[in-house]
Design a protein that fits this description.
The protein has 327 residues and is an alpha+beta fold. The chain is built from eight helices and eleven strands. Strands 1-7-6-5-2 form a five-stranded antiparallel β-sheet. A two-stranded antiparallel ribbon has the order 3-4.
Length: 327
């Protein structure tokens, strides 16, 4: 056996236009009898007890004529009751013109020598012919918290798949857009039909289209690459990977040595010191004989300088003789 679940009272709207017309419209004296026909009314309340007594006792029928007399009798009783706590009219004269009656369900407990103790249970609004039940504070907070938690759950679920890490870009939250190759672009341009060319005087619809998500992703990726390059340049701009940097002008670069690389570029290079060479040994002449003349046979020869060769004496040429032959 299946049981149908009834909707919550704070989620329904009740109205009865034929009943309101039979009462002559909703007014100060008819708002409570109109409310008695709604599903919000409790038949065990003091209001139902007084109404039943007034229908069966003509001496109490005057309590049903005016709301002031009816509520005055309710204040003398103890228990559950429905009272009008806000009336948009005062003695039939429209003062606020809000058109909203507020009826409160409350428990009244008598205390001797003191005012009655009133405990509110719920509140109801009568707007024209419509009756609504005000939600409790706990229900309002619960609904708002449920909405917030549901939204956060969706955000976390979507954001869990977004982060990605690459050595070039680091941590990103947008997937890298695929770059179209030049061949694919040329093929696509070659397959473009001439029929898609706009007529003179007409505006091309493609030029007015907003940028696609792929273009936005490419722009974001280019911006991230530029920022990363600038950060690396500012951090490591003065460091070199080579121990021997290049010097000179374009077209005539020279690889410097390690010792020269450690010297500042502004300091001029020092010229190498000249190597001291040994002066040549002077030749000493030990021949004491006369410089001219033929040396004697028994004269001793002067020793030669070591490392030098002796020169042989040059022979003198004889004079040529003329020979005559007889004829």
């Amino acid at each position: 056996m299946t049981t149908s679940q009834e909707p919550l009272l704070d989620e329904i709207q009740w109205k009865a236009p034929p009943l309101a017309q039979s009462m002559g419209g909703i007014s100060t004296n008819t708002v409570l009898p109109y409310f008695y026909e709604s599903p919000f009314f409790d038949a065990t309340s003091n209001n139902a007890t007084i109404t039943t007594q007034a229908f069966h006792n003509p001496a109490l029928y005057y309590l049903l004529q005016t709301r002031e007399a009816f509520e005055g009798r309710l204040r003398t009783m103890q228990g559950l009751e429905f009272m009008v706590v806000h009336d948009p009219s005062d003695n039939g004269a429209k003062l606020e013109n809000s058109g909203v009656w507020v009826i409160r369900k409350q428990n009244r407990r008598k205390r001797p020598g003191a005012e009655d103790e009133i405990t509110p249970v719920s509140s109801y609004y009568v707007v024209g012919e419509n009756i609504y039940m005000a939600s409790s504070l706990g229900n309002v907070l619960g609904a708002r918290l449920l909405t917030v938690v549901s939204s956060l759950d969706k955000v976390v679920t979507i954001a869990a798949a977004l982060p990605s890490f690459t050595p070039a870009l680091g941590h990103t939250y947008l997937p890298p857009a695929p770059k179209a190759t030049n061949s694919a672009m040329s093929t696509q341009m070659s397959q473009t039909s001439k029929e898609s060319t706009p007529m003179p005087g007409t505006q091309d619809s493609s030029s007015t289209r907003p940028p696609s998500k792929t273009l936005l992703d490419q722009d974001l990726q280019s911006t991230q690459l530029l920022q990363s390059s600038l950060n690396l340049s500012l951090r490591y701009g003065t460091e070199y990977m080579d121990d021997n940097p290049l010097v000179g002008e374009p077209g005539s670069f020279i690889i410097t040595k390690t010792r020269e690389a450690q010297q500042p570029a502004s300091q001029p290079k020092s010229k190498p010191a000249p190597v001291a060479t040994k002066p040549p040994t002077p030749q000493v002449t030990t021949d004491l004989s006369e410089p001219k003349g033929k040396p004697s046979m028994g004269a001793e020869k002067s020793p030669g300088t070591p490392g030098t060769k002796e020169k042989k004496p040059r022979r003198k040429s004889r004079p040529a003789t003329t020979v005559t032959t007889p004829k």
